[in-house]
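Design request, tokens follow.
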């Protein structure tokens, strides 16, 4: 007989891994399906300084600690790229991973977000040839060189500070004259002599030089002035969009694509829950992702106890 899990968790970031720990400890059968490496965005984060109990911990180390914890609690881990989630006539959730299917009584969607694109000339052509979305992965290629960082949020400023430790100069290009990033990050960036700011400016194009990034064309949106900044690398941190294509058919997202849940992380579809950055909410952090994961697992447990038994 085909196995039907109590809970299938899509995504093994901090939200998914915490849901796995809570569900497995409630004696539910749990499978966590992940298409990349366990840890989600934490895997590509150099240091995390705001997760309670750890003054400073590297993203990969916290990822590994959470993964080992989930496994020791008894959650199964499975590789899969979830393409679609549907509900059959008996209420069982059918998770389509392209080459195989997984069935479960409940699903917790914890798929997080993906980086946004600027959609300007040269961006896709020079991606991986100077343009990157991950300073931790690619920063070392630019040791002693000049890079630009685009954006003014936590990611842009945190990664600009990280890059300043490796490269000769970092130029932060921001579309306003004020940063969105937390004050503590702003203060560190303003105090760093290797970091310069180009305010009120947007990137219009990336220029190729011998098959690699050579320069970034920028326009000041207040004065209309054009500027060409020579750079070997460009790191784009202009925000994130939710990964919800696999639940389009369930109609549980808002106009921006985020999943709408109630206080119990429940969606309007019975037995379908969501947790972490993919949820419509104010604060997207590791600590809020693990909070959501714990609540979603507890709600899945209650749903199975009360609705299915
Ligand atoms: P994610 O961590 O995004 O994990 C989602 C997982 O789902 C991923 O592993 C993905 O591969 C998987 N997935 C997606 N779609 C599918 C699919 N179809 N099939 C199978 N698997 C799928 N927060 C802090 O608290 N402190 C920090 O210092 C900090 N630094 C950050 C630095 C950067 C550069 C960025 C981008 C974010 C940072 N954050 C930080 C935010 C924090 O990383 C996120 O809030 C947190 O990781 C969200 O967890 P999550 O589990 O909801 O999603
Ligand atoms: P974000 O907070 O949405 O910031 C995106 C930045 O890019 C903003 O400054 C925005 O400008 C700019 N931007 C957006 N679209 C643009 C465009 N088309 N062209 C040019 N600039 C554009 O995204 P994020 O920094 O990636 O952060 C995502 C989430 O992760 C947040 O919740 C954040 O708090 C969290 N995070 C936390 C930490 C931490 O706790 N240390 C670190 C990283 C990320 P405007 O300001 O003008 O809108």
């Amino acid at each position: 007989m085909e196995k039907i899990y109590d809970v299938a968790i899509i995504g093994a970031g901090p939200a998914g891994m915490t849901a796995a720990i809570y569900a497995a400890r409630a004696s539910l059968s749990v499978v966590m399906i992940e298409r990349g490496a366990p840890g989600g965005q934490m895997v590509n984060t150099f240091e995390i300084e705001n997760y309670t109990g750890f003054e400073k911990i590297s993203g990969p180390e916290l990822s590994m600690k959470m993964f080992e914890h989930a496994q020791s609690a008894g959650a199964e881990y499975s590789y899969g790229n979830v393409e679609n989630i549907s509900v059959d006539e008996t209420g069982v959730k059918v998770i389509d991973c392209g080459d195989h299917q997984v069935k479960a009584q409940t699903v917790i969607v914890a798929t997080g977000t993906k980086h946004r694109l600027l959609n300007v000339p040269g961006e896709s052509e020079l991606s991986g040839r100077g343009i990157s979305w991950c300073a931790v992965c690619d920063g070392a290629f630019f040791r002693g060189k000049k890079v630009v960082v685009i954006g003014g949020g936590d990611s842009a400023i945190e990664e600009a500070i990280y890059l300043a430790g490796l490269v000769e100069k970092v130029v932060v290009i921001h579309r306003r004259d004020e940063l969105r990033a937390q004050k503590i990050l702003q203060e560190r960036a303003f105090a760093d002599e290797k970091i310069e700011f180009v305010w009120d400016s947007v990137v219009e194009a990336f220029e190729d030089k011998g098959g690699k990034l050579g320069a970034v064309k920028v326009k000041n949106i207040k004065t209309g002035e054009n500027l060409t900044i020579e750079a070997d690398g460009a790191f784009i941190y202009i925000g994130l969009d939710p990964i919800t294509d696999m639940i389009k058919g369930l109609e549980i997202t808002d106009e921006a694509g985020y999943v709408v849940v109630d206080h119990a992380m429940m969606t309007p579809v019975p037995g379908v829950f969501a947790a972490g950055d993919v949820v419509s909410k104010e604060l997207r952090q590791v600590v809020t992702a693990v909070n959501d994961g714990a609540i979603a697992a507890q709600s899945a447990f209650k749903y199975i106890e009360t609705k299915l038994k």
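Comment from the thread starter after seeing the answer: thanks! The pocket of NAP (ligand 2) is lined by residues 50, 118, 151-156, 158, 175-176, 180, 202, 237-240, 284-285 (CB under 6 Å).
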